[in-house]
Amino acid sequence: MYDALLEAAEKRPQHEAVVTAEERLTYSQLLERAARFAALLLDSGVQRGDRVVLYMDNQAATVVCIYGTWLAGAVVTVVNPQTKQDKLSYILADAGAAFLVYDEQLARFAEPSLSCASLLGSAVNGADLAERLATTQPAEPQFTNPLDLAALIYTSGSTGNPKGVMLSHQNMVFTCGSLVEYLRLDSSDRIMNVLPLAFDYGLYQLFMAVQLGATLVLERNFSFPMNTLKRISEEQVTVFPGVPTVFASLVSLQKRDPRQLTSVRTVTNTAAHLPDDFVPTIRSLFPAGLIFKMYGLTECKRVCYLEPELVDSKPGSVGKAIPGTEVFLIDDHGRQVTSGEGILHVRGPHVMLGYWNLPEQTAAMLKPGRLPYERILCTQDRFRIDDDGFLFFEGRSDDIIKSRGEKVSPTEVENALHAIQGVREAVVIGEPDELLGEAVVAYIVPEPGVQLDERSLRREALSLLEGFMVPARFHFLDELPRTATGKVHRRGLTAGSA
């Protein structure tokens, strides 16, 4: 993956690579800092294939560390800064992390986690990173094979513990090439990213920019939408990726304060279905923007996309396979579906290597293909395909909840809720939501004589979970519905049962 940075630094050394509210880095500056970070890793004993964990928010230093990790021949893992101590400790130990970089404001979670990660060798506080880099000589790029592991991206798993999706350099280079092809991007683009770099949708905005020698306009978050609109105008952003909750905020602002952002020519949506009634307002906000509706999952990054010219004629569809790949549906009888419903399967060079240290879960997702040596990704998502070959998402076939574009494990949320004093039983399900895709909804049985309220439960849950995992709604029950065998009857849980 670092080859793209080397090429961009050679061909466009003074072109802006990363722009943040605090600083602007050219490609030559980005490469120099990344090479210094690579030297820091190598001097610390990091070897080819070792895992480097970045517990950082969206900032230029994160970009430097990502590419520096690859220049050192190591594997990168970016962890969401909302992640709390227990989950961080699990990731560090599971990945066998050799090095950790963490933001100063996250020290209260990071530093106690170091003792829990027995395999961890070294760590550096983000506040000290600039000083350390200034006194370190740049390292030469270490040899990397395209088949080498490039990244571990952790995503929620059905057991409650996150799973590390293994992606090779070859996986990621192919994916970048396919994305920039169908999105019609080029080196003149200025791509804004308000999504976490720990989220693969956000991470690939960086990769596409570097692949093209274009510019990434990186925002720390989307907490202040009006500031984002101002930055789009000031930086003449040409590409704006979002999820439905982001677009909902922009639509609300547009209604109160009509404006047009004419520099944006590409608007992308994935992670959750974009409501069709958002499209006219998005068009009025970005009058020159082509709207791409897409579907993907961490295990292969992107699966399909709908050409923007078809957004009106194929409402609700997420299109067809991205360039260089194949998709098909398999019904409950194991037959390929040409028209109708089935589980979506994906074939292509972007399919993950598997889950880190999880052979059984890997086997459940990577199925034998048509050829003796290949494995096909079974997405576990149910789709419908129409007579023209266009795909429509119908729902998941497992218990994982897809909310705000992120996978949420009900077990992980339930474990956190059970740790809250006064909670006797907790069950979490996903309920359809126009903006969130699915809303995380909790059904709570309090301890006898205990009065619980939604506000305090949400506050407690937020101290234990990442924000997107905190239930959007809480319902209180005297008892949970159960099957004849005594198991919780999840399908019997609805808002009406509260």
Protein described:
There is one protein chain. The protein is an alpha/beta fold and about 500 residues long. Among the domains are: about 5-175 and about 185-195 and about 205-220, ANL, N-terminal domain (Rossmann fold, 3-Layer(aba) Sandwich); about 400-495, GMP Synthetase, Chain A, domain 3 (2-Layer Sandwich), CATH 3.30.300.30. About 30% of the residues lie in helices and about 25% in strands. Strands 16, 17, 18, 20, 21 and 22 form a six-stranded antiparallel sheet that branches. A five-stranded mixed sheet has the order 11-12-13-14-15. A hairpin with an 8-residue loop joins strand 13 and strand 14. Helix 1 packs antiparallel against helix 2 and helix 10 (about 245-255) crosses helix 11 (about 280-285). The longest helix is centred in the N-terminal third of the chain and has 17 residues, at about 25-45. It starts with a helix and ends in a 22-residue tail after the last strand. The mean pLDDT is about 90.
SSE arrangement:
Elements (H helix, E strand, L loop, with lengths): L2 H9 L4 E4 L4 E3 H17 L7 E5 L4 H12 L3 E5 L5 H11 L1 E6 L4 H8 L7 E4 H9 L14 E7 L7 E6 H14 L7 E4 L6 H13 L2 E4 L6 H10 L4 E4 L1 H13 L9 E4 L9 H7 L4 E6 L8 E3 L13 E2 L4 E5 L5 E2 L2 E8 L6 E2 L3 H7 E3 L6 E11 L5 E6 L4 E3 L2 E3 L1 H9 L4 E11 L3 E10 L7 H11 L8 E4 L22
Parallel strand pairs: 1-10, 3-4, 3-5, 5-6, 9-10, 11-12, 12-13, 26-27
Antiparallel strand pairs: 1-2, 7-8, 8-19, 13-14, 14-15, 16-17, 16-18, 18-21, 20-21, 21-22, 23-24, 25-26
Helix pairs in contact: 1-2, 2-3, 4-5, 7-8, 10-11
Number of strands: 27
> Which CATH architecture of the domain at 3-173 and 184-196 and 207-221 is right?
3-Layer(aba) Sandwich
Question: What's the name of the CATH homologous superfamily of the domain at 3-173 and 184-196 and 207-221?
Answer: ANL, N-terminal domain
Catalogue the unreliable spans: none
Counting helices, strands and paired strands, the structural category is alpha/beta
Number of continuous helical runs: 14
Mean pLDDT score: 92
- How big is the Rg? 23 Å
**CATH topology (fold) name of the domain at 3-173 and 184-196 and 207-221:** Rossmann fold
Silhouette: globular
Can you summarize the main beta sheet?
Answer: 6 strands, antiparallel
